[in-house]
Amino acid sequence: MNINLRETKTIWSIAIPILLGTLWDPVVNIIDTSIAGHFENENYLASLTYGNNIISNFYWIFGSLGMAITGYTSQKEGQNQFNKISEVLVTSILFIFVISILILIFQKPIWILCSLIFNQSVEIEKITTEYYYIKILGVGPHLIIMILSAWFLGIKKPKVIFKTWTLMGISHIIIVLLFTNYFNTKLNGIGYATIISQWISLIYIITEIPVNLKKINIKLTIYKLLPKKEIMFLGSSFGDLMIRTLLLQTVYLVTTYISSRLGATALASNGIFLQLIFFSFMTIDGPTHASAPLIGEYIGSKKIKKFKSIYDNALVSAAFTGLVFTLIYLTLGKNLINLITNIETVRLESYKYIMIISIIPFISSLAFQLDSTFSGMLKTKEMRNTVLYSTIIFLLLAYFLTKLWGNYGLWISHIVFLSLRGILLKNCLNKYLKNLT
Questions:
Q1: What is the C-alpha to C-alpha distance for residues 288 and 259, in angstroms, rounded to an integer?
Q2: How far apart are CA 425 and CA 111, in angstroms?
Q3: How many distinct helices (H) and strands (E) make up the chain?
């Protein structure tokens, strides 16, 4: 393993703005969870978990296309094909705009399907229905922001990402406090705050496009898409990543489904843990995401030695970050739970699983780094296949282990899932590097 302080510094110079920006998302989720956790009963907290898991599927499934956009954009920069940088931007925005319109058209059938699958109590169903129809209005702008953030990462402009997500986070917090404290809108206030902050941030990031293209001497050609052959290639990558993310979301939907079968208290407790886990994931993703455009550039310019060095340095940074979160959750787990909710039954249920949840951040670091590595390389089939195998194992384990050990079995299945993803991708990377020598 080649550890180079200069390259570690380069990674973190990209990672820190991304990290500080995108961390607003889990921070906002934790604040929302805390607000809902202090309403009069656990139905609001359960409804928040239920509704967010449905809406987040859109972000995970289609937002993951950004991995291909980052890899493609950075590779074209490495190959000095600068005209393609503008073309991939226009092509990607058009694609995600069409997706956003389709989501709005089919919002009702989607809700009916989810309602049938999860089959919650009448009270939870009522609260979540109103929340869902508010939040879905922000899915389109949020997806476009995610795609544009991936493109800005590909051209190594992380400060734009920082400003955009910081604007979204701060505006959300101000608005949600206003709506829930002064207008007593309960869960709907969280929904209103979300969509208003999303639209504000979308307007801002769009204004940054011509400014940053001018800085790197690239002309924005609004009506020029990628050539058909390259659209097919990028479309194939999109397809692989969508399947991969659908599988990942299957894991979290199954987690929500099993949690709901274990009762409202378990669902609320697991909702807290998912927010804590996602917070650690977003932080670990700082150095891993930062390595993706560098890896893409070096693959594009065929600088394999530099590629290996960036991978090694980013992996060490990711593992260290994961270890920090593992130690934080081990030592401060109860305090964090108490901060998020004052519902005693949820607190007592959550205390049982602190030890096992704490392992997850460190275990996940290998899979996260390899995800970013393969997205930078645009080797999306390997990403798809390894997640497929890992998901199958997860589903089998979750089915049998929850029958034996309840919620413990569910979280053990998650640990195996994350470990297996990393191991399988590492095997693919070793084969790729072997073929180069």
A1: 30
A2: 35
A3: 18, 0
Q: Map out the domains of the chain as residue ranges.
A: 5-436
Which of 49-58, 236-245, 311-320 bottoms out in mean pLDDT, i.e. has the lowest?
49-58
* Mean pLDDT on 288-292: 89
Structure tokens at 425: 């991708």
Q: DSSP for 210-247?
A: HHHHHHTT----TT-PPPHHHHHHHHHHHHHHHHHHHH
CA distance 293 to 154: 5
**In this predicted structure, what is the pLDDT of residue 437?**
57
Question: Residue 419 class from Cβ within 10 Å (0-12 exposed, 13-18 middle, 19+ buried)?
Answer: middle
Nearest one of 248, 236, 299 to 436, comparing CA atoms: 299
* Mean of pLDDT over the chain: 88
Here the tokens at position 26 are: 């889990």
For the chain, how far is it from start to end, CA to CA, in angstroms?
17
pLDDT in tens, 369-428: 999 999 989 899 999 999 999 999 999 999 999 989 988 999 999 999 999 999 999 999
- Find where tokens 């607003």 sit: 24
A 10 A CB-CB count for 337 gives 22
- Dihedral pair phi/psi, residue 303, rounded to 5°: -95, 80
Give me the pLDDT at residue 2, please: 67
CB 137 within 8 A of CB 195: yes
In eight-state DSSP terms, residue 302 is T
| Angstrom distance (rounded) from CA 207 to CA 263 | 47
Residue range 78-99, pLDDT digits in tens: 877 877 888 888 888 998 999 9
